[in-house]
Amino acid sequence: MDFPVWTLIPFVLMLAGIAVFPLVPQLAHLWDRPRNQLLYALVLGVPVAIGLLIAAHPELVAHALIEYVQFIVLLLGLFTVSGAIVLRGDLAATPRTNTAFLAVGGLLASFIGTTGAAMLLIRPILATNAQRRYRAHTVVFTILVV
């Protein structure tokens, strides 16, 4: 069974809020607080969950909740494991080094998944490029490749 089309509206509003609120000066200071982000998510998500329960679709809500919990547990495990893995070294922050990181990340993603590869390599990439003046693009490319 598929989710009803009306359930897309809060999802689109959530994506729009994530994209726009940090850019609007009057809202940016509110959006910086995780409590306000959670409140925004609850205001949009709880009515959908209640609506699906009332519409006699509790299996959809239960299925989505189970998948969400599984995803959070996966992230917790990956974060715990990758936090214990420390890659040390003094690599030069050059385009060649960054390309090698991206290539290794792409290969690792095939074996341990994109989330695991990203969590494993993000700290070494950030540490290697810490002294560079322009480094934001490195994280963007890492997200795109891995």
Strand-pairing-aware structural class: mainly alpha
Order of helices and strands: HHHHHHH
Number of helices: 7
Quaternary organisation of the protein chains? single chain
Main sheet attributes: strand count, strand direction, barrel closure: none
Mean pLDDT: 86
The number of strands is 0
Stretches where pLDDT falls below 50 for ≥5 residues? none
Number of domains: 2
Gyration radius from CA atoms, angstroms: 20 Å
Percentage of residues in DSSP E strands? under 5%
Approximate shape:
globular
Concise account of the structure shown:
By secondary structure, this protein is mainly α.
Word description of this protein:
This protein is mainly α and 146 residues long. The chain has two domains: 1-76, no CATH class; 85-146, no CATH class. It has helices at 8-20, 25-31, 34-54, 58-84, 95-112, 114-128, 136-145. Helix 1 (8-20) runs antiparallel to helix 3 (34-54), helix 3 runs antiparallel to helix 4 (58-84) and helix 5 (95-112) packs antiparallel against helix 6. The longest helix is centred in the middle third of the chain and has 27 residues, at 58-84. The two termini are 32 Å apart.
